[in-house]
Amino acid sequence: MTASYDTLLRLRAWQQGRAQVRVSYQQVRVQPHAMLLAPVKMAGEDVTIFACGWGGRSGPMRFDFVADPRNRDAEYALFGRLGAVLARYFAWCQAHGLHPQVWVASPAAVRLLDLLADRLRYAGSGPAAKPAEVVRFGEHLTLLAQRAAVPGNQTPLAATEVLGLHYATGQQPAEDAHLGAFLAWIDPPPGQPLEEAVAAAEATPMGVLAQPDTDNDELAGLVAAWNAARRRDASPAAPDALARPVAAVLRTVVTPIFDAIGAAIDAIERLGLPELASLAGRVAGEERTFAAFMAYLDRPDHRFALRDQPLPAALGLLEREAAAADLAAELALEDPLCRAQAASAGAALTATLVAHQQTSEPSVGPTGRRSRRQVHTITLATAEADGRLRPGDTFRSIANPGLVVEVRDFTTDPSEGLRIAARVTGGFSRPGVPAVGTVLELVAAVPERWRFPQKRTKVRTRLAGGLPWPHDPTQPPPAASGRPHPDPLAVVERLRAAGGRPG
Amino acid sequence: MPNRAALAAADATVAEVLNATLWCQEPAVLVTSPPGAGKTGTVERVAAVGLLELDLRVMVAVQTNAQVVDLVARLARNFPAVPVWHFHRWNLPEVPAPLRGLPNVRSTERTRDLPAGPCVVVATSSKWAETDGVHFDLMVVDEAYQLREALYIQFSGLADRVLFIGDPGQLDPFTQAAIERWRADPAGPHRSCVAAFIARRGRPRSFSFPVSRRLDQGSVALVQPAFYPALPFEAAALPGERQLRLPVAGIGPVDRAVTALGAGPWSYLELPEAHAGMVDDDVVAAIAGCVHALLDRGAEVRDEYGTRRLAPDRIAVGCAHTAQTTAVRRRLRRAASQVTVETANRLQGQEFDVTIVYHPLAGRTDATAFHLDAGRLCVLLSRHRIGCLIVGRAGVADLLAVHAPAAERTLGLDDDPEYDGWQAHLAVLDRLGGAAAIRTVRR
For residue A48, which of A103, A105, A128, A115 has the smallest C-alpha distance? Predict the structure, then answer.
């Protein structure tokens, strides 16, 4: 996000007391079969689930909980039940050729799912061995963890982040992490000052923890009572009876979160924006990724590395970077408002072609062949006062992506704004340099979603026979051999003085 | 009269590197270097001797196209007997100007054009990552601390043995991708290829250059303890050997700061404290004023090569943000259009007579990991041969005091660039601030 444009939108939101729309197109396809998920953990227990609400976009919230997640048997039983829910959902998506779409309230919830995946997907052995259904739950969560790190992903989706793609509030970016507060900016309650509405919304937890008061004053005593009964009474009926009050409190924590996720989805759909053109491709990619993941999971020899080997790690990082670059390029290309944001980051430019000069210059090709080449130099004028340009920056025309210009220099003219001297480095024959007076919409990059899969295949093929020795400590390096030269610098001087020899 | 003892020590290091890499055929050699120590010269020597004396196939991986052109041109000029292959990207429209007319340079984009026998081939790491079907005896990785493991793994198998050479004080490889999964892995894909190699295989045979040919002793006295506490080095230039002269007098606060460069390599122009955001118009104006003052006052440079007029293309302005470079460039007069105005990332590996630095913390209300990065400040403060003028604002010390690093340490990793940077900022401020700072009122 570009600071200046983002700040402008936030100031406008603050001035008008209402969130401002920041895009012209919908950035995420809300799937009719989306699953809303609201997990809550116990304070002090970082990688567990205390209670969870889930459900579709219509219909009631389903709810499950564990009276004390520190009790391993009870906790695993909950994981088993939640795992069965997620497995059924994944199976349904697989059968229909769709990808799952799991919505949570915030990045904190995504992080919790990531940590749970790491904890649960390894079976372990001996007394610490996990039940198969718990391991499968961890494996399914692994898909969500993997996809969460890839920009432009369609699952899992944190409601605050998706709202942030579409709306700008008049508060600090960090304050947007509270879903209730964000929704208050989108739908300010009538008759109440916005600041009060936001403060009131923030009183309701929207992350993955209950309020400390709820923990201390209500849950702590109820959980202790359940544990005491469990230790005292062999009959399961007594602990069950004491678990119900725990569930009642937890339900009051989970329900507002679940409802807020639904409200966030409604807020996005209510905009009625058309879908970004490239969104269909991203959805198809998500479906392919999901199908491949499930196919891998069906293999009896499937395994997930605790620590990535060098090659999967490298490819994982490259995939994330390629996805980020492609997403940024798609947004700048397809959405005028996103392009305005990109412009203040130097990644887009709208300018009028005010002069065009064609000259013929001597040139030496890479083969050494001498010729004359046509050089097209253009002058662009733009009123954009806050651009970030550097000589050497290149831009492509949105209308004709084959047309490439390279910035050579720029000056500020008090009466005419920014004047940019540029050279046309591609596309001057076809599509040809536009006529003087043409307004050019330029972007720094165009999406190349084909490139990373091609790169991945190539690298995997190249390294199919094993990693080179610098990356594989099990391989011996080549042996050192030979003896030092008594005066290597004398050799250097002798060679420096030597004349040329044929190449 | 340069520091002959230091230069002799540097030559001895080069001899050891040549022996270990070429005659003893160590599988891996690491050369760490302070700024301006002669890395490129060492790469040239290794490549030339490897080809001409030992008939090796040598590939050189550098990190930018500009570095490829620079290295090929230098190698071709300094060793006329070495046929140098400029292995470039697809569809390069023409040979870069510095390579034209060099009889021993060959350019190609195709692997099949490369010779089957002994040769020296120079390309970017990105180009090597796209290359198959060739194999070399020796790979030289220049600026190795800037090459990420994720890229290096794609072409590390192209050669049997490797020579890493680089400056550990500069900016680490950078990614905006989520790296939580590999954060605690010392050989993670986001780490430099040197760090990953050491984590996997232990430290290879290693050498350090003990001298900087670029920085003079006054500059080394600040840069070495602040940024290279584990890499002792001294200056090749003796005190007083290099000097900036300003034949025309100037008045005003900016001129005082420029004039101070005549007395030593550092000058710190401190504007009054203010919160000004990413682009501070006053700082921008002061930087442009300093550039113009250097040119208007007919600045001359005296060094071991003689005395000459300070040309605009020997001046650089270094900033942390692109927006700042744009703002500075727009303030410069046409006569200063040859002045390089760049971010620290793009100034890496470059050298100028005089640099003017936009202090990364000037006018800020916070000090993030980006602004505290030791590598960024190190690059900005180590590009100059003669003098470095820093433009900042009062209040940096207070800012550092209230923005101590968050101490978010990662299990398994000893290095902490944010803390190192915070310490380096304090050290630099201690050296430049106080009485030495030239304070000014608003323009």
Answer: A115
The identity of residue A285, as a single letter, is G
Is the per-residue pLDDT at A430 higher than 80?
Answer: no
DSSP state of B393: E
Note the pLDDT tens digit of each residue in A383-395. 775 567 888 889 9
d(CA A493, CA B79): 10
CA distance A384 to B403: 35
A365 touches chain B (CB under 8 A): yes
Distances (CA, A) of B129 to A273, A501, B141, B142: 42, 30, 13, 15
3-state secondary structure of B51: helix
Contact with chain B for residue A474, Cβ under 8 A: no
Q: Which residue of B has its CA nearest to A4?
A: B278
A294 at interface of B, judged by CB pairs closer than 8 A: no
How would DSSP label each residue in B300-339? Answer: EEEETTEEEE--GGGEEEEESSHHHHHHHHHHS-GGGTTS
Inspect the interface and report whether the beta carbons of B323 and A363 lie closer than 8 Å: no
Over residues B361-408, the pLDDT tens digits come to 999 988 888 899 899 999 999 999 999 999 999 999 899 999 888 767
Which letter does DSSP use for residue A441 in this model? Answer: E
Q: Which residues pair with A381 in a beta bridge?
A: A352, A419
CB within 8 Å: B81 and A498: yes
CA distance A153 to B309: 57
Half-sphere exposure in the Cβ direction for B149 (13 Å, CA) = 30
Nearest-CA distance from B227 to chain A in Å? 28
Long-range contacts for A179-183 (Cβ within 8 Å, ≥24 apart)? A179/A105, A179/A106, A179/A206, A179/A257, A179/A260, A179/A261, A179/A264, A180/A204, A180/A206, A180/A256, A180/A260, A182/A19, A182/A264, A183/A260, A183/A263, A183/A264, A183/A267
Q: pLDDT tier at B440 (50, 70, 90 boundaries)?
A: low
**Residues B165 and B20 sit within 8 Å (Cβ to Cβ):** no
Q: How many CB atoms lie within 10 A of CB A20?
A: 20
**Which residues 68-107 in chain A show a CB within 8 A of chain B?**
none
Where do we find the tokens 């190190």? B378
**Secondary structure E strands in A335-403:** 348-364, 370-382, 394-397
Yes or no, beta carbons of A346 and B326 under 8 Å apart: yes
Q: Which residues of B touch A368 (CB under 8 A)?
A: 95, 107
Lowest mean pLDDT among A345-349, A361-365, A443-447: A361-365
Closest residue to A318, CB basis, from B20, B108, B150: B150
Residue B198 confidence (pLDDT) above 70? yes
B26 interaction partners in chain A (CB closer than 8 Å) = 480
User: Chain B: nearest CA to A190, how far in angstroms?
Assistant: 36
- Nearest chain B CA: its distance from A383 CA (Å): 14
Q: Inform me whether the C-beta atom of residue A486 falls under 8 Å from chain B C-beta atoms.
A: no
Nearest residue on chain B to A148, alpha-carbon basis:
B178
List the structure tokens of A132: 């198969």
Q: How confident is the model at residue B63 (pLDDT cuts 50, 70, 90)?
A: very high
Helices A279-298 and A72-95: crossing angle in degrees, nearest 10, is 120
From the list B15, B132, B193, which residue is nearest A489 (CB)?
B15
> In DSSP terms, which residues pair with B358 in a beta bridge?
B391
DSSP SS3 for B236: strand
Using a 10 angstrom Cβ sphere, with 0-12 exposed, 13-18 middle and 19 or more buried, the burial of residue B53 is middle
Alpha-carbon gap: B304 to the closest alpha carbon of chain A (Å): 22
Structure tokens at B161: 């043995």
Rounded to 10 degrees, the C-alpha dihedral B337/B338/B343/B348 comes to 180
User: Could A488 and B156 be called an inter-chain contact, meaning their C-beta atoms sit closer than 8 Å?
Assistant: no
Task: Express as a percent the part of chain A with pLDDT over 70.
Answer: 96
